[in-house]
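Section 3.1 - Work completed
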Amino acid sequence: MEVVSVSVSRPRSVTIGGKEVSTGIFKEPASRRVMVRRLNVDGDGQGDLRVHGGENMALYAYPMEHYPFWEDELGRTDLPCGQFGENVTVRGLTEDMARVGDVYRIGGALLQVTQPRIPCFKLVHRMDAGPAFVKRFLESRRMGFYFRVLEEGEVGAGDAIELIEGAEESVTIAEFIEFTQFQTHDPVGLRRVLASRDLSTGPKGWRERLETMLQKVERVSATQGWDGFRTFVVDRKVRESDTVTSFYVVSEDGGALPGFHPGQFLTFKLYIEGQARPVIRTYSLSNSASHTEYYRVSIKREAPPEPGLPAGISSTHFHDQVEVGTRLCVQAPRGQFYLDSSTDTPVALLSAGVGLTPMISMLNTIVDSGNQRPTWFIHGARNGREHAMGAHVRHLAAEHDNVRVHISYSQPRETDIPDRDYESRGRIDVDLLERILPGRDFEFYLCGPTPFLTSLYNGLLAWGVPANHIRYEFFGPATALQPEKERGKPLARTETITGAIQVNFARSGVVASWDPSSSESLLDLAEAQGLRPDFSCRSGICQSCMCKLLDGEVEYFLEPLDVPDSGCVLICSAKPKTDVVIDV
């Protein structure tokens, strides 16, 4: 480990955003050795001492290993040492090696690692790489770190960096960055940072900030799960069929987990090699809501939709890369599709394919609670090779008189035995339900592919089942399951309702009146006009539907998982408060 360069600069005035500010970010390599002092480096200075400098941030180090990354990222070859505002450019000491509290000898100075560098707007001006550079810098995790000075002394290029005392009990700077910037709602991670040796205190330190963050997280966790993402560990990985595998995840601290409603889902933030940004995916919980020692999700490996196309990114990652001990970023259970446990009305759980996972959660919860409500578990699969958890369901039916099971295979194999593995051949439809159910006085829960849902939803309505007795999990337009003749006709492009809020889809030239009785979200309204904006989750999670809000105000009926970009709106979970103009 060695010092590549030492850089300094006196503060200078620059104009940023029409405002004159003082900054010391324009470092230049020093031509000789420099004296490192308790609060600064000779020949150097900070422009704003409210947020920079001081005992805990006396010397800023940045790894030379990051320069090739930024040259490639920015398409530049003119990045000199000191470009990122660092006092010392170092080689062989990166964020994943340096721990808070580590003590190093560099030249004549004795230094202690304190905290990562959190970038400010002045870095944007220095890099001249666009206003989003601070976000790019932060998300890269290549942020460098600060030293406090234990013994003053001279430092120069070529000096060796010698570890004098390691703080093995402390987090690395890389972990510090992760828990304070990305997994800010993980109490285990926050406690690990707080336990670090000689953690910085005071107005520009971290201890007080972290204690406040932890108190907020623990307060939220005690009442409604937790806010944002926190770290879980895979405790078990169980193969359920040739295509479905279950993953049991536990809190990193091993504590009991907040409850959930059977049918809800977990949201995962996955860091997958080859993907430019984290992949956000949701998977239904498949365990009983009575279990608070773990969560379980059961994931189908998604095959390529056709030859030559890639397989499912996230499901392949889970099946091939996630093993026992893997740490995962998880958001608390959420979702509006779940079992109504307040009634004893007979329930029919109808599913196809991997749509059975929330139904398994509902079935397990009914059984574990001792509720005797009549329950029919009706599931369709291709054959026994893909049918998951069949033996478990049949065991529950054998042990509980109120549980009935009917399995239908569309393409049974020769080894699949009728009345042992499946009851009928074909697909689940209303004709089948009329034959096997004792009537239609049920609460129907549906989950599966779109054709399955469309057929059953319309069939149940035609059979005379009230719409409010049909509940379904569906990530598509809210009107797509309704009979076509009953769907609301799109409003004319200039049609308005007197006194109603007006929504202007600017890019499409469509103006529509907001009618909360026919649309729940701005996305619903756009689709009713024949528009097809991007979306995926319809739950305020994935940000696929994010659009620019050009004018007006909105409110969220589903709180977004992450705050949308400034000046933008997630149309899947928002409705207008005033007349609005949206870039759709």
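Second construct:
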Amino acid sequence: MISLDGDEDYSSEVIEFLDRILKTDRSNVPAHFARGRALSRAGRIDEAVDEYLLTAKILPTRSTHVLAELKTLASKVMAHPKIMFALGMIELSLNKNDDAVNDLMKAAELDSSFVRKVIPLLERLHKDAASPLLSFSLAKLYYGTGLKGPAVEFLMDAHENDKKYREPVIAEMKRICADNPQDIEARKKLAEIYFGYHNWEDTLTLFGEIYELDRKESDWLKSYVGRIIQADFHSPPAYYFLARIFIDEGEDAKGVEVYRKLVEMVPTETVNVMNILSANEEKPADVLLYLADLYIDGGYAKETVDLLGELLSKDSSYAEQIAGRMEKLIDKYPGIGDAYTLLGRVYASQSNYEGSIKYFEKAMELMPDRDDVVLKLGQLLHEAGETERAIKVYSELLGRTKDRRSVYRMIKKARDDYYGERITALQGGDDSNRLERAHLYLLMNKTEDAERELEFESDDEAVSKRHAILRARLCLRKKRPMDALEIVQMLPLDKETAETYADVYEAMGSFGAAALALRQSGIVGMEQRISSFEKLAQTKRATKGKYFVEGRT
């Protein structure tokens, strides 16, 4: 008998001999098996593999021998996909599942054309004998064919059922995330794995990516970040991330509370929290107030004043909170002049002129060269009815400056700024607020705005009277004194209307009538103005008399 085991190669003769046998007996198992060996010796690898598989198919009990031959062949012919595929097939028939999966995967990795053959085999095996290795292998095959969703699910299954797959699964999930920068679900699954191992750093990094991709995931993210804080309350990045979400969503109070807990727990984070909050262009009121608290505690006096001044300009309803913080600042740093000016502004927004004047006077003591402080004090004194003191303050300012024109401009600007703040503080559409805003607009010579505020009627007698007075003053601003007279004559002459009567008569050149209106009303402090009107009336009469005499002459 011809042998294949010697040094001489008789494979061709053996194959020819076996072909004659198989020609008459196609089911001759020994002949098929021997032909596989002969083909292997001849280097006809693909044909040899087919022959071995046919042997096992005809007589499954020979599978063990076939497996041994295939292993021998695999050791001689390295990295041959068809050999690996055949090994996997035979191992499946012998219930050597893990070996089968490994060899089938090698076949698919060596030649992608085997993927479509391997997947159905592994899917059937998964139904009957699921395992972490099988799940992991199917995941890799699915992802290679573009089935990303099932791939992620199988990776998670492998990880959940055998923790030794932790690193391989993480590596595959990271690859999927890197290949798919917009994929949220893959990042969520990978984050869950990191979360399970208390790897907060990588978990929060993925949370940040997810949040940037879709802000609608915030509820899911807040839930997990909250659990991180519960598990490890010394994790500053978790606090930062949670606070950021709250503030982005407009829940400023919650965001501030998270920052507050972080600073209480880790005081060294204070500066970082201040930098984050101050970097935001839009700072809600809760954020501004908390940032001011941090500034006060940290000794940032100027920054505190600037910050709370910004808040007061935005919304004067926070006046009480601002005042409390400024008083705390003054207790620590009594020499900060701008702190007193801000407190003065706070009290002015509440129409507390006495308190406001007190703080501006203190500010002027500390900053005597600040013209803007002097101007503001003068404005407050004027509004409080202390006209003589206001004139004295302005006179002193004018007396010490060489650029009087500049001071006049500053006086006008200070007045307009003050009126603007008052208008901002007067929120709401009730009649009293509308009348006060109209009055302020008239003082600023903004007639269109004043006219818009006066577009209403009221059944209240006091409101109607005030409304008529302002309408008359609006006509005077528009240089329509006759219309103003028609309106004001419908009102009684009293202390409330006398000055408007006088202004109307003055605009018409009736100085005597203007003086008489003020005198009859009995308003205190009008003597100088009455005297001025009477002199003008006398001059006017004298001028008329002169023209009359000259005419007759």
